[in-house]
Amino acid sequence: MPESNNTAAPATEPKMLKMTINGKEVEVKEGTSIIEAYSQHGMSIAHYCWHPGLSVAGVCRLCMVEIEGNPRLQIACNTAVTDGMKVNNESEKVKDAVKWGLDFHLINHPLDCPICDQAGECGLQDQYMAYGKYTPEMAEKKVKKHKVVDLGPRVVLDSERCILCSRCVRFTDEVSKTNELGIFNRGDRAEIGTFEGKPLDNNYSLNTVDICPVGALTSKDFRFRQRVWFLKEHNSICTGCSTGCNTRVFYNKEGLFRIKPRYNKDINGYWMTDTGRDAYKFVNKEARLLDARVVSNGRGEWIAPKLAARKAGEALKGAGKSVALVVTGQYMNEEYEALLSYFKNEVGTDRVFHWINNPETFDSFDGLLARGDKNPNTKGLLAEMAKQGFTAQWRELAEGLQTGAIKTVVVAGPENQAVFPDLKAKIMELSKASKLVWLQAGKNDQLEALTGDVTLIPLKTYVEKTGTYVNYAGIAQKVHKGLTVVPNALSLVEVVALMKGEELPADDTYNQVGLGRVHNEFTMVRGTL
Amino acid sequence: MFQLSEEGKAYVKSELARYESKQSAIIRCLYRAQDENGGWVSPEVIEHLSQLMDIPAAQIDEVSTFYTMFNQKPVGKYHVQVCCTLTCGMLGGRELTDAMMKEAGCKKLGDVSPDGLFTFSKVECLGSCDTAPMLQINRDPYTESLNTEKGLKLVRDLRAKGGK
Q: Chain A residues contacting B, CB < 8 Å?
């Protein structure tokens, strides 16, 4: 019977169904498919084409299960659970079916794992270890297809490795809704591709690389740069915009190599933007300010950041309203609290200004994830400013600099300089102050070239410290310290402590180390990657 | 830039109204557009249909590359499709193709003859085994019960007809 359209009807609890998976009794909601039941209860099942964030295609035929009372095997992704259902995927019958299914997938697969970027996190490798027919029975020659197909600015396709699971096609149809990808031709000549003149060029294109279960789609940015088993993983938050997508950063002792999304149903689902994936580049050493720079009397020298912070603090003490603080929305709640209360109580100024990087597009939203506010913590900053009672307008800063009422400017500058199009102009404007203290993680030639009384202090980036970001919707998310890239860099909390004249604790109490560290995952969980 | 005729556009509209989903109308519209474009589906055809039907170009191209009835390369005025499946093959379909291609001046299957009149392809069973060997020109009714002589005559007749 069709359901009525009466929306006023009270929401009822979904009916729970009892079922047995591999001899274990479990309960699932009505409408769950068998593969979802496996996934919810952490049991492994072979699959390629099914992805929790996409529609069901049922093309890989690998998630075969035996259902009691049913003479034929069924695919778990497209079969709904019924009450009292008994399924298992461990019988010989299932294993044999999966074995043959896998062998068919491998008919035209080149097996070039030693030179393939996906090796180490490849669905095909994982399944082959579990279900492989180690003596292949296919004697035919493999079909030659296109290698190194340039699909778009960020993605490369190797057609021979593709198993035509259609995840990427469904992604562009259903999630990004840009419809660039399709499966062209037929049978063993079928290939993923784009229509000519319409490349895979959207801000979500790299998600197709994540969900590709084999090495067919690879990221131009990451390919051939590292073997995945040499990378460590650490849970983090994307600081590329105010959405705050949950991410996982991959790093080794040379720095960060890539960022992938992590599932969070309230914030980003399974996906993230391509621009957010670039948020590792400003963390690496070659983009960083490594030591503090102090310029006075036209002579500049590089000194230890701690010393520079102490010296700057001595000059600020009790300086009152001649000091202005300029803050960007790029830092953590804990840092704002320390910094703003220090300026209010110890320096004694109410001239605290919020630097908005792109006022024209600040409130824009692309409908999926990317927001115009390119700061991870604007909410946190505004809340802290309101708490401390800072209401100064940017205009007052310009006036103060003009009249000379503001002599010293302290800037907590951008961590990610790429999203500050007005950076150059702001440096010009703020360097009019007779004394400038600029706190920033990244190096900037314009800042280093400044003459006059200037102090540059290197800061830590978001993977090097522990703290909280509040996203556009007011959801607070904590990130933990994962690694150290620039050993000398300080967090704002540490800078403030030094400015006050305190000593830093020897045991890194500001940063709890290692809490975000994750261990490598296997097949079942990669669906959530 | 390819454009459907006014009747063609009206046809596409009526086909779109006929089916529950827009995608169902793709094959019929592609047929129509192929006929109007001189026998093949060029990327411009797909782009035009994509705009007209409001379906992403990649989805239309998926259909056009899946089915062999849609030609991906230009063809001659007469696209000669000779059946070479079992019965026709045993009764000389392949030899017939070779002879006709030589007469028409085509070097390879799928090539357009120098005068622009002929393109030959071998196709799978067209379902007329009792009159083998047989062929189909464009989408016209079948030409049946052939032998080499009849085939050569057919090419000459068509050339005389088409050359005008």
A: 179-186, 194-198
With an 8 Å Cβ cutoff, is B58 touching chain A? yes
Spell out the domain ranges in chain A.
16-105, 142-284, 285-518
Q: In terms of Cα–Cα distance, which of A227, A177, A228 is closest to A205?
A: A177
Question: Under CATH, to which class is A142-284 assigned?
Answer: alpha beta
Q: What angle do CA A33, A38, A42 make, to 5 degrees?
A: 145
Q: How far apart are CA A15 and CA A422, in angstroms?
A: 55
| Chain B from 15 to 44: CB within 8 A of any A CB | 43
- The tens digit of pLDDT for each residue in A136-151 reads 777 888 999 999 999 9
Beta strands in A61-159 (DSSP E): 64-67, 74-75, 85-88, 149-150, 155-157
3-state helix, strand, coil in chain A (%, to 5): 25, 20, 50
Is residue A76 a contact partner of residue A65, using CB atoms and an 8 Å limit?
A: yes
Q: Are A212 and A171 in contact (CB under 8 A)?
A: no
pLDDT mean over B16-42: 94
Is B58's CB within 8 Å of A195's CB? yes
Cβ of A182 and B62 within 8 Å? yes
CA B140 and chain centroid, separation: 10
Contact B61 A197 (CB under 8 A): no
Contact A197 B66 (CB under 8 A): no
**What is the distance between the alpha carbons of residues A508 and A465, in angstroms, rounded to a whole number?**
10
Whether B145 contacts chain A with CB within 8 A: no
CB–CB of A250/A258 below 8 Å?
Answer: yes
Report the C-alpha gap between B118 and B151 in whole angstroms. 13
Tell whether ipTM is more than 0.95: no
Query: Within a 13 Å sphere around the CA of A493, how many CA atoms are in the beta-carbon half?
Result: 18
Domain B78-162 adopts which CATH fold?
Answer: Glutaredoxin (3.40.30)
Please state, in angstroms and rounded to a whole number, the distance separating the CA atoms of residues A234 and A526.
15
Report chain A's mean pLDDT, rounded to a whole number: 89
Question: Which tens digits make up the pLDDT trace of A311-355?
Answer: 999 999 888 889 999 999 999 999 999 999 999 999 999 999 999
Q: Is the CB of B103 inside 8 Å of chain A's CB atoms?
A: no
Q: Does domain B6-66 have CATH number 2.40.30?
A: no
Q: How far off is chain B from A173, nearest CA to CA, in Å? A: 9
Cβ pair B57:A198 closer than 8 A: yes
CB contact under 8 A, B61 and A195: yes
Give whole-number Cα distances, A412 to A401, A456, B95, in Å: 18, 10, 83
Inspect the interface and report whether the beta carbons of A184 and B62 lie closer than 8 Å. Answer: yes
Domain boundaries A285-518, corresponding CATH code: 3.40.50.740
Q: Of the CATH numbers 3.30.470.20, 3.10.20.740, 3.40.50.2300, 2.40.110.10, which one belongs to the domain with range A16-105? A: 3.10.20.740
- The encoded tokens of residue A254 equal 């040379």
Partners of A325 in the β-ladder = A352, A410
Q: How many CB atoms lie within 10 A of CB A395?
A: 9
Contacts of A183 in chain B (CB under 8 A): 62
Tens of pLDDT, residue by residue over A220-239, are: 999 999 998 888 889 999 99
